[in-house]
Input
Amino acid sequence: MQEINFIVTLSQDAEDRIRVTAIKDKGEILKFVVQYEAKMKSKWHPIVRYDTSHGFAHKDIIHASGLKEKQPLYFPTFSAAFTFAIQDLKISWRWYRAAYEKELKDEKGNGS
Output
């Protein structure tokens, strides 16, 4: 078995990244965590996480309030889900960040 760990920097200011951890055996991903994190006001915030905890591949959208929204992924293998997760975050990170920033702003505006 091989453990894979790496970070993909997404923005020029290095305040957006994808953190990747996976276990691979004979070319197949056995488990993984692929997480998009954004640095805001000197603090890293996890915003979207794809992983295989609980025994199935899923996506967690982590809201500014701390609420986690779990969405199952329907791929034939963890390898396919892993590839999809990395591609989705590379393509959509700006949208995820904007939505999270809006939630933070709305929370502050509502007296929270």
Q: What stands out?
A: The radius of gyration is 15 Å.
